[in-house]
Structures are given as C-alpha cells and as structure tokens.
Amino acid sequence: MLISQHNAWIHAAATIAIVVAGATLRISAVNWCLLTLAAVSVWVAEALNTAFEFLCDVTSPEFHPLVKKSKDVAAGAVLLSAIGAVLVGGFVFAPYLLR
Fold first, then answer.
1. Which among 11, 57, 80, 96 would be 20 to 30 A from 21, CA to CA?
2. In this predicted structure, what is the pLDDT of residue 4?
3. Which helix (H) or strand (E) holds 47?
4. Which sign does the torsion angle of CA 39, 44, 49, 51 carry?
5. Is 62 an active-site residue?
6. Phi/psi class of residue 12: alpha, beta or left (left: φ > 0; alpha: ψ in -120 to 50)?
7. Average pLDDT over the chain, rounded to an integer
8. Choice among 27, 31, 39, 46 that is catalytic
9. What is the pLDDT of residues 19-58, one digit of tens each?
C-alpha cells in the first residue's frame, strides 16, 4: 500500500507526528488508546479502499460510471475516517497544548 498509494505516505507522516507529539506531551494511557484507535481506523479504511480500487481495476479495466461512483464512495470513507481522527486528535491534544 505504501508503494502504490500516495495518501498512505500522508497517513504515515501523520501517524509519526501523532507518536512524536504524544511522547513529547506525555499524554495519558487513555489518550494513547484513543489516538491508536483513531489512527488504526484511518489505516484500515485506506487499506480497504486500496484493495477495493485494485479489485475494481481488475474487474472493470475500462471506464464505467458505476465503478467511478463506488471508488468515490470508498475514498469518501477514508476521508470520513481521517476527519474523525483529526477530531479525536484535537480533543486529545487541546488540553495539553492549552496548559
């Protein structure tokens, strides 16, 4: 996935940033759990989206409007997961940064 998907590199950079920020701010174990669940949800969504796109490309190599719509929906799921992860990160890090 890291080889073929540009967005996976963005997720990797965000994951590293979260780990560094969490360690620097010495966040609690509960907050580590929340951040881990949020990050894993994004990685799972990206992996499923990648698998779905590969499968669509095999089954319908030529353009088909329904395949495009299904790929868009799968990509939208990744976006929703990423937005949720950003919100979790905001809720976790805000109190530490405001101190």
1. 80
2. 87
3. helix 29-59
4. positive
5. no
6. alpha
7. 96
8. 46
9. 999 999 999 999 999 999 999 999 999 999 999 999 999 9
